[in-house]
Amino acid sequence: MTTITPLPPGHPPLPAGGVGLLLVNLGTPSATDYRSMRRYLGEFLSDRRVVELSPWLWQPILQTVILSTRPRRSGRVYDKIWNRERNESPLRTITRAQAEALSGRLATSAPGVRVAWAMRYGEPAIADVIDELHRDGCRRILVMPLYPQYSAATTATACDAVFRKLMTMRWQPSLRTLPAYHDDPAYIGALAHSIEESLARASTRPEQLLVSFHGLPEENLSKGDPYHCQCQKTARLLRERLGWPESRLQVGFQSRFGPKEWLKPYADETVRRLAGEGVRDLAVVAPGFAADCVETLEELAIGLKEIFQASGGRGFTYIPCLNAGDRHVDLLEALALRELSGWAGPGAGGKEQDDVAGR
To answer: For the segment 78-135, what is each residue's pLDDT rounded down to a tens digit?
Structure first.
C-alpha cells in the first residue's frame, strides 16, 4: 500500500487511489456437514428476493421444517460433486480461477485494476471483500454479478448486498454494476463454440439440445422480472448462431422448489417427453450459469441423465459451463473493459486523494 505525499501535518495516511473489480457469484457452503449446510441454506432461503413471503409467515416454516431436514439432504447432493482436493465446492474453485485469469488479462489491458471475487451467500462475503478493496485504496469499484440473464433473485440481490455494505461506510467508493449480457454477441459466440466443441467430442450424435435455465416462480414474470424473456432470447440467438432449425433446440427450466407454479416447460418433464417421442441421444447445456455448480453437475449431469435413460433414452451429453476457459475469460475481459471505460488506465483513481490533501 503506497501513501500520497506530502499531506498536511497530522493528516491520517491515505492509500493510493485505485480501481477494483468484484466478480460475484451465487454462493457455496463451506462444507457438506449438517451445520455448514444449515448455515448456508438459512442465509440463502432467508433472502426476501429469493422467497417473496412475509418473514412472519416464512421464517417459522423455514426454521422448524425446512432447515431440520433439507441440510442433510442437500449435503448428500453436494458430496457427490465436492472438490476433495481443495475441500471446497466446484463453484468456489471455478470462481477463484475466473478471477485469477481475469486479473492476468487486465494486468496488460487495464493495468492497476485489482480483481477480487465474492459470494452472495457464504464466503468470501461481499461486505468483507469490499472492505479489502477499500483498504487497498480502491475508490472506484466495478461489480460484475456473473448472471448473463437479469433477475431480482440473482443480479438484484447481489447488488443489494453491495449497496447495504456501502450504507455502512463513511467514505464510499464510486460504484458501477455490470448489466445483463444475455444477448451480447461475444457471450453467444462463446456458448456456440463450446457447444460445437463438446458435440464434436461426444461419443454419440445428439439429436436434440436441451438449453436448461434455472427456474423461478411463474409470478415473477407477471411482476415485471425480465428473466424469462432474456432466457428465451439467449436460446434463440444461440440457435441462430449455430444455424440450427427450431426443432433441434428445446428450452427448459430446472430446480423448482415449493408448491408454486414455476416457469415452464420444466426440464425434467421435457426430458421425459423427448425420450417418449423417440429421441435416443440428447445433449444438455446450462448457459445461465457462469460456472459449474451443484445445479449443473448433480441436477443436470447426473439427475437428468438418469431421468432420460430411465424414460427410454440412450446417449446423454452434458456440455460444461464456460467456467474459466479462454473464451469465457475473453468475454469477461471485454465486458470489464467496456464497463471500466474512463476508469481504467494510468492515473485512474487518484483524484480523491488529491482533493482530501487540498491539492
So the answer is: 999 999 999 999 999 999 999 999 999 999 999 999 999 999 999 999 999 999 999 9
Q: Transcribe 29-82 into DSSP letters.
A: -S-SSHHHHHHHHHHHHT-TTTS-S-HHHHHHHIIIIIHHHHHHHHHHHHHHH-
Query: Within a 10 A sphere around the Cβ of 125, how many other Cβ atoms?
Result: 17
Angle between helical axes of 157-167 and 126-135 (0-180°, round to 10): 50
Enumerate residues 6+ apart whose C-beta is below 8 A from 28: 40, 88, 89, 91, 92, 119, 121, 122, 293
Question: Does the domain formed by 185-319 have CATH 3.40.720.10?
Answer: no
pTM recorded for the entire structure: 0.91
Would you give the distance in Å from CA 73 to the centre of its chain? 23
Mention every residue, 6+ apart, whose C-beta is less than 8 A from residue 322: 190, 191, 194, 290, 291, 328, 331
168: Cα within 13 Å, side-chain hemisphere: 10
Across the beta sheet with 138-145, the strand order is 113-122, 18-28, 138-145, 174-177
Domain ranges of the chain: 18-181+328-356, 185-319
- Give the model's pLDDT for residue 359: 42
Q: Which helix (H) or strand (E) holds 103?
A: helix 90-109
Tell me if residue 209 falls in helix, strand or coil.
strand
The C-alpha cell of 40 is what? 448456508
CATH architecture for segment(s) 18-181+328-356: 3-Layer(aba) Sandwich (3.40)
CB atoms within 10 A of CB 348: 19
Q: Report the pLDDT value the prediction gives residue 186, as an integer from 0 to 100.
A: 97
CA–CA gap between residue 53 and residue 67 (Å, rounded): 17
- Decide if 18-181+328-356 and 185-319 have a common fold: yes
